[in-house]
Description:
Order of helices and strands: EHEEHHEHEEHEHEHHHHHEHEEHEH
CATH superfamily of the largest domain: Reverse transcriptase/Diguanylate cyclase domain
Structural class: alpha+beta
Number of helices: 14
Number of strands: 12
Largest sheet: 5 strands, mixed
Strand order of the largest sheet: 5-6-1-7-8
Number of domains: 3
CATH architecture of the largest domain: 2-Layer Sandwich
Helix content: 25-40%
Strand content: 15-25%
Low-confidence stretches: none
Mean pLDDT: 91
Shape: globular
Amino acid sequence: MQRAIALVDCNNFYVSCERLFRPDLENRPLVILSNNDGCVVSRSQEVKDLGVPMAAPWFQLKDMAKKHGIIAFSSNYTLYADISNRVMQLLSQFSPLQEIYSIDECFLELTGMNELTRYARHMRATLRQSIGIPVCVGIAASKTLAKLANHVAKKQPGYKGVCNFNELPEDRLDTLLNKISVNEIWGVGRRTTLRLQEMQITSALALKRAPAKRIRAEFGVVLERTVAELNGAACLELDEITPPRSQIICSRSFGVSVSNLFELEQAVIAYTSRAAEKLRSQHAMASCIQVSLRTNPHKPQEPQYQSATTVPLSAASDDTRLLCHAALGGLRHIYRSGYAYQKTGVMLSGIVAERPRTLFDDVAAQEKSGALMATLDQINRRMGSGTVRLLGEGISKDWAMKQRNMSRRYTTKLDELAVANA
């Protein structure tokens, strides 16, 4: 029985999320901007057709935007995460095994199922009708080939959003692979691409036909596995359960430069609180926290300073209050007055599944802490992130990143829910 792995990828995901609640944006040029409205991170097809590249700085596109009527939104990560959860939950019903690869794509095990192309089209139609997000599906014998099949499904309208490599004759498949640049292959980065091009390996087909031993000698076992995957051997299995993260990072650039310690403390508390939420969501605890601080490297005319410090905890914890106390101690240690800071961040590490027990544990205090954090998370999940937070996080956040054009949080904030007009 031939292996069948599907890659389902949402089309222009952030743009599609915005259009869900704004049907008037259909067929209009639309971009989503990064933190502080800096550069383009998602583009509608209309914007792609205008030649706007990914990561283009927004300030450089102002004249083009005015000429072509390009609409820009700030990133609404709360909305995108919620829609992603709905998409992945629905897709899980189509396969006994799912690997969520990113916020907008996942692998599905379809081996043994009949009429896979028809099944994939039913999958697309169900997602479009139930949630409203358009997707493309690539099916192949390996994850690497499934990625390339998805690429073909997106780029060639004739496939109508579904490309099944398993049903193609070998010569037709090779013709498609010959048209795909080697840099489009999953896991082949810029430096590897340059080295492969020096070896006259410029397409996916050329890499498929490259001698495996030579590839291993030149690049190592990882690219050798890629060659095997291009030849239909599934070397990369699906991960049914996403392994817990060994580090959790929360870091943002400020909307305006920050010089005083008070505002930096607010930011560190806010970021530590978000990191602690993620820590508890994977039922884990952290043994230490790193705090970092830096000025703007793109303004060399200003005094430059950056530093970081790691603060170990006396015992692993998931309590936001204890983590914030440690983070603030680290911040005060590395802070220097007289600088205009652009960014701060925290990283939780030494992550363990449970706290090691000792004879000196205050079990009652630990149970009280666990109950308090569980209640905090429950309220914020139900009422919206940040509904209940530490007072030290502040109310008026002048330092917060710029989000001048952010849409409403239609699905997670009670006072911003979508309302149907009669």
